[in-house]
Fold each of these.
Amino acid sequence: MGAAPIIIDTDPGQDDAIAILFALAAPERLDVRALTTVAGNVPLALTSRNARIVLDHAGRPDVPVYAGCPGPLVRPLVTAEHVHGKSGLEGVSLHEPGTELAKGHAVDFLINTLRDAPERNVTLCALGPLTNLAAALIQAPDIKRGIKSIVLMGGACFRPGNVTPAAEFNIYVDPHAASVVINSGAPITVLPLDASHQVLSTPARIERIGNIGNKAGKLVAAILAHAGHEAENLETDGGPLHDPCVIGYLLKPELFSGRHVNVEVETGCGLTLGETVVDWYRVTRRPANALWINEVDANGFYSLLIETLARLP
Ligand code: BDR
Ligand code: CA
């Protein structure tokens, strides 16, 4: 079987950068067709620049980057410089990217690619607010045909939110888009905070990554060394590695477990805006619309990350 075609929709973002490197390190399993960028952790101009900087660091400037939506469908943009730094890539030495953005809008690229794809072919990895994916699905609902699966990082059920007590950042930034995507009828897997808060980058794990002995390992260790904000909030010995869970799940799903459930997103205003309401006990009898991951083998995950990153320059 050849490598699975994937498109990474992203807002780099420190953990997005690690996820992109992780995916690029397994070319025989994952064929990264493009990165599509969205506003999220930092504004669109920066996520679009950062995506190309990460590709340069991975020695893969051939992967096209399409810029997408500059803000959420309905709400004003909320960003997270307090987590990822002003540049969005705190810990990475920045340079002017060697490549231009690809021509055309990310939403058009998604629509055209998915329309041309064989049935149930492309996996969409969503690492940021779901604005681009929702816009594509609203404009062209027929593209569902070409989607194998949407694997997204977002939401929380068994853990409190990280941007408000009720909400996780990606869903909070664009709850309307999240609701469209989750209820689109495409096969959805959700890697929420319930999962990512189990994979903590402890000093010992960061040291193992730094000691891989290649440029990628040094870069990831440097990013993690500059990513202390969440560990402070959680009072844990290391911050969570959110977006790389998506790639880890694609490479080794047996490290993860969860349940097929109904998920709805709170789009009304108030204290719970952006909350993912997960019917874990199936009390509503609403049909399941997502596989919700709530358990990860953290040691297995870090071993996979380290052995995979070791294959990059
Ligand atoms: C998510 O929010 C962003 O800050 C991270 O990149 C990740 O996608 C975690 O809540
Ligand atoms: Ca992200």
Amino acid sequence: MPFSGIFKRSQLQQKCILGAVCFVESSTDSNTEIPMIQIHAPILDGADVACEIWLSHTALSSDKPLGHGHHGAIQYRYSDEFLFGVLSLPESALPQARAVTAPLQQTTESAYRQIFALMDALDYPHAYRFWNYMADINGISHELERYRQFNVGRKDAFLACGREASDQLPAACALGLADGPLTIAFLLGRKAPIAIENPRQVSAYEYPEAYGPRTPNFSRATLLRAEQDDLLFISGTASIVGHQSLHASDVVAQTKETLANLDAVIAEANRTLGEQTFDLQHIFFKVYIRHATDLSLVRNEIQRHIGGTIKAVFVQADICRRELLLEIEATAWHLSERL
Ligand code: 3EB
């Protein structure tokens, strides 16, 4: 259906939409109260739009409408339980900053500071998931790769806002696009999640300095026992074991390694809960592929691993280390037996 149709589709659905992460070929004026980021990245299975839409169960089952508002550059919508927000900031150097600071670093720090101020102001103290998109992620300026500039700005904001606790880091992804502003979506809430790490990998926030002056501030997954479901937000996952990228220039081997990492994160979440809550069947995947021509190799490997039908969107984007050819993120869910 045309992009503009998605959010007009039904009043009922619109009433329940907290927000969306959309991949589109060209931007459309969405003209709605719904916070949405429009990411210009080619969708690899031929569709011209793919949207990850976050719905509120409580808005569906009650008459209480979702709230919405603006805070600085942020647009957001919220229920009692969740807040979904978006912001897009062009990379322009802040006038007061020293000329040595890269614009992307400053812009990232500013974006995260605004988000943390919103969390404090509206009392949604917990961040579950961040989606980060930026231009030219592997480019170098100010003697530093742009992804590493982003990491400096992000970490500095966490520290400045008193959010240094490593057991409370959100799940995240960080992808590169051809152009466009720094674009971030985020999901917050009132209930504390459980941060999950991957036993096969060094925690990203403990990567050695060889990967940049500040470590990437995210957890491998966050686990949330929400009112309706148990949710597992799995961060962008790649062919990294320990802290090293494996299988440079072998996209099939990278896909296998990435799937082994996803299995390990899911197993770790189940171990934490003490029950087999999550599996590979009840899960949505988003697969970012550096070279569009690798699509069928990657898809076949995922299909073979999972069996049955896969719920996945394949998008062309740049991964945050040059040698990485793909990254897979996922959301797994399990209907709560507490209902
Ligand atoms: C990695 O594991 C691959 O900087 O927010 C994955 C997920 C990656 C999130 C981020 C980076 C991020 O280090 C890259």
